[in-house]
């Protein structure tokens, strides 16, 4: 008789908490090894690509970076083609996306790198439809996880209830592995505490960011493959803005602000604040364009990195926003979730089970794909006086100074702009910026 943690006994059930993008990718990563994957989702899915209450950030701009596109298409072959056929757009990082950095407009050059722009419901729907087709993946919608089964050493399943029926008797779903993909609303810390498990260390940084977003009809003569990104400029300009093409011949126009620069969703104020961005190009572009509806607001809350790689509790891991929430302005969240799902797939395939070794390896890999984007985002957030928490010290100052030099050079040097884009797209690590071909022009010009 095999014990928990052995290869022979751990190919049973995996439970995924949350059926959003991260949860669906996790389910797909597991379905080739687990005998059964159960996705527990509080919402009931809408018909088609539409908004749902459990993803409040879906009404705001989303970018799938180049690394995220490649990873999702590797996990779900053909998914990128499906997104493009449904109206998503690949906007070239050089020719299509005009990016006003803190130092100025990036120098143009020819590039194969692009961001994928479309509404968040479209991405979710394409991935959901593919995962639903897997015969061993079961979705329980209108159901919420209210606790974990197990003890301080090992998680052995979840407790569930029909949503809104807390007075009813709970049901248990035993599992060899529980994956928390519940997003920013995760309750895993409380549930693990109830089991007596040690608290998981976390890093926290809060720039007080908030958003206001409005959809517009895109005029027939406007290009469908161009976008604008006006970055904030610390410490004296905390506003930023984006204009992105999305399906349905629309633009999604978003403004955000760090603490003290909160945008308004009132129609007149929204239009007025577009004119307060560092460049008038977004305000000028939407002049005369017809909105499809009112502006919507969103306050994502602080960025939190939960270090499950330091946890000793077996049978449990987290990915997506349940593992690390980023300031959305940097567009990293969906790409990091995809990279984490690929790490999960690779680990369970390598070990052939859902046991301890696969979980440990996945946790370490998730920490690895999180580290660079977290350090870059947190290092930028702490430039603003209103930010609480976050890293400090010499290392952060060196990082900030180096990025300032890179961006200053990238305004006029296409080689440096290309290197910066590769790092921002997460196809290359930040160490690329220290190679002689990049570092030389950054430090010495020429």
Identify the notable features of this structure and list them briefly.
446 residues, alpha+beta, five-stranded parallel sheet, 22 strands, globular
What does this structure look like?
32% of the residues lie in helices and 23% in strands. It is of the alpha+beta class and 446 residues long.
Note the overall shape. globular
**Radius of gyration from the alpha-carbon trace, in angstroms:** 22 Å
Percent range for helical residues? 25-40%
User: Number of helix segments?
Assistant: 12
Largest sheet: 7 strands, mixed
Strand order in the largest sheet? 6-5-15-16-17-14-18
Terminal residue distance: 69 Å
Mean pLDDT: 94
How many strands?
22
Give unreliable regions as ranges. Answer: 1-9
Percentage of residues in DSSP E strands: 15-25%
Helix/strand-derived category reads alpha+beta
Outline:
The protein is an alpha+beta fold and 446 residues long.
Blueprint (SSEs and pairs):
Elements: E1 13-17, H1 21-31, E2 36-41, E3 63-64, H2 66-75, H3 79-85, E4 89-92, E5 97-101, E6 104-105, E7 114-117, H4 120-132, E8 137-141, E9 143-150, E10 155-162, E11 171-174, E12 177-180, H5 188-194, E13 202-206, E14 210-217, E15 227-230, E16 239-246, E17 250-257, H6 267-274, H7 281-286, E18 296-298, E19 303-306, E20 316-318, E21 324-325, H8 333-351, H9 356-381, E22 388-389, H10 394-410, H11 414-424, H12 436-444
Parallel strand pairs: 1-2, 1-12, 2-8, 5-15, 12-20
Antiparallel strand pairs: 3-7, 4-7, 5-6, 9-10, 10-11, 13-19, 13-22, 14-17, 14-18, 15-16, 16-17, 19-21
């Amino acid at each position: 008789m095999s014990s928990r943690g052995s290869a022979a006994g751990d190919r049973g059930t995996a439970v995924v908490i949350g059926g959003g993008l991260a949860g669906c990718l996790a389910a797909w990563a597991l379905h080739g090894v687990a005998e059964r994957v159960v996705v527990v989702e509080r919402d009931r899915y809408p018909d088609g690509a539409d908004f749902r209450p459990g993803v409040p950030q879906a009404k705001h701009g989303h970018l799938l970076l180049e690394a995220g596109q490649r990873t999702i298409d590797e996990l779900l072959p053909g998914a990128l083609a499906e997104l493009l056929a449904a109206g998503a757009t690949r906007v070239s990082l050089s020719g299509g996306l005009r990016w006003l950095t803190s130092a100025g407009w990036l120098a143009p050059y020819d590039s194969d790198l692009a961001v994928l722009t479309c509404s968040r419901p479209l991405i979710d729907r394409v991935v959901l439809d593919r995962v639903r087709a897997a015969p061993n993946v079961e979705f329980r919608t209108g159901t919420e996880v209210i606790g974990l089964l197990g003890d301080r050493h090992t998680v052995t399943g979840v407790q569930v209830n029909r949503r809104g029926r807390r007075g009813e008797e709970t049901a248990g779903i035993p599992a060899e592995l529980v994956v928390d993909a519940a997003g920013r609303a995760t309750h895993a810390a409380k549930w693990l505490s109830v089991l007596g498990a040690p608290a998981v260390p976390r890093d926290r940084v809060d720039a007080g960011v908030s958003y206001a977003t409005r959809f517009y009809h895109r005029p027939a003569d406007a290009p469908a493959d161009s976008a604008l990104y006006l970055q904030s400029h610390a410490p004296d300009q905390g506003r930023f803005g984006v204009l992105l093409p999305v399906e349905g011949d629309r633009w999604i126009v978003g403004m955000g602000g760090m603490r003290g620069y909160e945008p308004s969703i009132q129609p007149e104020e929204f239009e007025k604040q577009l004119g307060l961005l560092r460049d008038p190009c977004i305000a000028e572009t939407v002049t005369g364009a017809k909105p499809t509806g009112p502006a919507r607001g969103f306050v994502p809350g602080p960025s939190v990195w939960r270090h499950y790689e330091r946890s000793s509790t077996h049978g449990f891991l987290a990915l997506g926003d349940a593992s690390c929430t980023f300031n959305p302005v940097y567009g990293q969240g969906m790409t990091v979730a995809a990279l984490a799902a690929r790490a999960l797939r690779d680990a369970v395939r390598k070990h052939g089970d859902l046991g301890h070794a696969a979980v440990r390896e996945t946790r370490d890999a998730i920490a690895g794909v999180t580290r660079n984007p977290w350090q870059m985002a947190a290092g930028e957030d702490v430039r603003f006086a209103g930010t609480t928490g976050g890293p400090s010290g010499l290392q952060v100052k060196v990082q900030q100074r180096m990025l300032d030099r890179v961006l200053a050079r990238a305004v006029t040097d296409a080689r440096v702009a290309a290197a910066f884009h590769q790092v921002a797209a997460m196809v290359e690590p930040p160490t690329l910026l220290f190679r002689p071909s990049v570092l030389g022009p950054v430090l010495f010009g020429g």
